[in-house]
């Protein structure tokens, strides 16, 4: 997800390393403009907003960073994105699952999924599955490819009902509950993915990055009183987007994590995720249900895994 503040910060922090690498960002539509144009405008905006004045760095941002349209609210769009990426025949060393929505009103994706679960979780689940062969082809012993999935501390209060993944509670829809559920599902997914990768001896690792409480525009849908408090005191309680980006960047490139997976990372250190996220039975159940919902074969039973 490239057209929002946290993904933008991740790009900005990684920018010095793009001298010999290529970074590809996907994005959902921004307003009425084509997503690619919107994201390119973000690059120009980054130059002025964050003091990126070096002519070389500005050129790098607009030539070494490539944008492809991908709407995670659409399974069709995700598949089209992957097809376009594969046609480029470039290696994929790191996949950062960083897109998302937060506290949006009750609504559904193009495929009929509750939006938090569909965008935050199922979209990334499908995207990772479709790009896994590229990640494996790019990894090697001593230089593993990496899948970094961004979750949040909200997962600690999440509840996962396998019979109600669409958040259709009898008592009414809860945006916070739906958001927490999607973040909990992401942690379960990452831990399960790592278990499968390790069992196969794959040169790919999977970790979770928790950016902390970051001052971004994701809070635009929360209660007005919360928005007011954020505006007044956010500078004290919230991380800046740059500060929030560091754990994702650490998970993506730190030598300390070479060959290391199955971790929940916060402030560039390992932490413990919610106890149930380590339950292999729940991991398998959610995985199987996710395969059904996205219309893909169960990777754990695929020949890819032996």
From TrEMBL:
Keywords, in A-Z order: Lipid droplet, NAD, NADP, Oxidoreductase, Secreted
Keyword Nucleotide-binding: no
Catalytic reaction(s) noted: a di-trans,poly-cis-polyprenol + NADP(+) = a di-trans,poly-cis-polyprenal + NADPH + H(+); a di-trans,poly-cis-polyprenol + NAD(+) = a di-trans,poly-cis-polyprenal + NADH + H(+); a di-trans,poly-cis-dolichol + NADP(+) = a di-trans,poly-cis-dolichal + NADPH + H(+); a di-trans,poly-cis-dolichol + NAD(+) = a di-trans,poly-cis-dolichal + NADH + H(+)
Main location (coarse class): other
Matching Gene3D superfamilies: NAD(P)-binding Rossmann-like Domain (3.40.50.720)
UniProt keyword annotation of Oxidoreductase present: yes
One Pfam family per UniProt: adh_short
Localization in the cell: Lipid droplet; Secreted
Cellular component per GO, a single term: lipid droplet
Any one GO molecular function term: oxidoreductase activity
EC number from the UniProt entry: 1.1.1.441
Job of this protein: Oxidoreductase that plays a key role in early steps of protein N-linked glycosylation by mediating two non-consecutive steps in dolichol biosynthesis. Acts both as a NAD(+)-dependent dehydrogenase and as a NADPH-dependent reductase during the conversion of polyprenol into dolichol. First catalyzes the NAD(+)-dependent dehydrogenation of polyprenol into polyprenal; polyprenal is then reduced into dolichal by SRD5A3. It then catalyzes the NADPH-dependent reduction of dolichal into dolichol. May also acts as a positive regulator of starvation-induced autophagy.
Family statement drawn from the similarity comment of this UniProt entry: Belongs to the short-chain dehydrogenases/reductases (SDR) family.
Designated name of the protein: Polyprenol dehydrogenase
Record organism: Sus scrofa
Species classification: Eukaryota, Metazoa, Chordata, Craniata, Vertebrata
